Amino acid sequence: MNGLAFIRKSIINRILFITISGAIVVSILAFFIFYFIFANEGTYHFLENILNYAKTHPFTFALFLGFLTFQAALIPIIMTYFLLKKEVIDPLQDISERMEKISMGELEQEIPVEREDEIGHLQESFERMRMSLRVIVEKLENEEL
Fold first, then answer.
1. Among 145, 95, 88, which Cα is nearest to 125's?
2. Buried b (16+ CB within 10 A) or exposed e, 5-34
3. Could you tell me which of 68, 82, 81 has the C-alpha nearest to residue 30?
4. Is the pLDDT of residue 144 over 80?
5. What pLDDT is attached to residue 128?
6. To the nearest whole number, what is the mean pLDDT of the chain?
7. DSSP-assigned letters across all residues of 50-95
8. Which of 20, 32, 71, 130 is the most buried (most CB within 10 A)?
9. Are 19 and 80 within 8 A, CB to CB?
10. Helices 43-56 and 58-84, packing angle to 10 deg
């Protein structure tokens, strides 16, 4: 199985791929940022000032580091939120709306199967169910005539 097929096969594989990709990008950016900071001769004086400030104002410095950590944690949280919304929540809402219409007797509207993952399998199952219901309803209507 090639990499692209592995990613398409499951929602969790897609989430894992995007999360790892994000971690790699952040790591590369952090490397370059730290490299340029530490490669500069004047950085040591700057870092010494930061450490002195941390020693004299530990509470304020801890709040500042906590704030920075929170900001850094927001990036993967927001990425995960939008990914889950796009990949899981929106398709499930679409399936739910279509199933609601089917439960009201509207059996003509197809449920498109656009994916190969778990959501795609669910779409396939509901489409087969819709087709079966449609056949059953047509048979019942023909028997009544």
1. 95
2. eeebbebeebbeebeeeeeeeeeeeeeeee
3. 68
4. no
5. 93
6. 85
7. HHHHHHH-HHHHHHHHHHHHHHHHHHHHHHHHHHHIIIIIHHHHHH
8. 130
9. yes
10. 110
